[in-house]
From TrEMBL:
Official protein name in the record: Ribonuclease G
Cofactor(s) listed: Mg(2+)
Keyword Lipid metabolism: no
The RNA-binding protein AU-1/Ribonuclease E/G domain, residue ranges: 133-353
Matches recorded under Pfam families: RNase_E_G
Domain of life the protein comes from: Bacteria
GO cellular component: cytoplasm
Amino acid sequence: MLGLKRLIIDTGITQNRCLVFENGKIIDIYVDDIIQKNLSGNIYKARVENINNNLGVAFLNIGEERNAFIELKEIPNVQKGDELIIQIKRDSEGNKGPKATSKVIFPGKNLKLIVGLNEIKNDGLDKNLYESVYSLLKEIVKKDLGIIISSMPEDFNMLIEEYNDLTKKWNFIKERANYIKAPFLLLNERDFIKEVILKNINTIEEVIVTKSSVRDIVAKFIDQSKIKIDLESATLIDKYIFDVMKRKHYFYDANIVIDEVEAFTIIDVNSGDINGKNIQTFLDINKLAADKIFQLLKLRNSSGIIFIDFIDIKKNQREELLQYIKEIASKDENISKIYGWTRLGVLELSRAKKGRKLKDLIFDDYYKELLNPSYILKIIENKCLVQKERFNRKSLEAKVSCKTFELAERIKFKEKIKENMGLELNFKVNNNILNYEV
């Protein structure tokens, strides 16, 4: 049985954030940086610029700063100059451009419409319910417009209506593409609130928002009785984010140290005060450490090659630990491969990239504890909101670095604060402070 979830959603001028709790335990952190454009989910009419058979990809002009790429196995007969409708599956990462797919997905409340799919798939329904729904849907679902069902509304007709609405959306885009020359953005699908709600729609017990305007948006997807407004929850989000991003994490009598750089992540499990305990204790501590490590890898959205140096144990216990780790890793959809133990007894694995690392969304320099300007402005925005709502302040002064001030000026941050809250925000540039002062 799936646990009930509580969401805390905090939207803003520079960043949107969301925490997801299940049975009181944090299981997901979403941070969407509005300043740094994210193309994931967008649908384009693209033009094929180049084909690289050695890499097995075609490069697509989508009208953005960087060309996207798509695997040739998706479009084996494509030629240079061809125009096609694609969706961005993964945004740019490092030197790579956005990854595209020809399998366009339209998410709904109870189902996903997938262009090119000829199936009706189940993703959460009881087997008997799915079979009865399947028998009704198979007469309605069109060729190459398959679906994945995640939940069942009270009235079956609502499911049909949702399918028809998503189909109309696709037909409109397809028809529009016939009269537009590539490259062209056909649909901007980035909607942070909709995205986090739909990912958790079937198990939401409560949604806490920090702004009353967001409550009305959330109410489009879930019952209003489940929505609560709490200004102070924004501070709670920061507390959890900084806790997750700590370099050193303590548990029982041991600790974990995480060093995360661009190419790889090194994690060291230290015995702490458990020296002198028996070998079985070391195995148990390693298992507990593995639980904590995989939770942190997910919350930090760590990716690339990962090395984990566990407490030394006997060879047969190392195999037991490896099997335990494989079981944990099977629950993480981003784990690409567990390579096993190196000659030095360090576990090596890889985790697929999916969006930006939490570290890069929060820090300019992690080891100097230097926050990035976008995150600093989000914190300042929340402080403005609390001062206005709780104390009816008319003005506020913030000291920031030149870099943060330049971003604030470029996006007209002060003007937006004035427009949204009726509060006069004044900046003072001071490069001697670490992050900000309010």
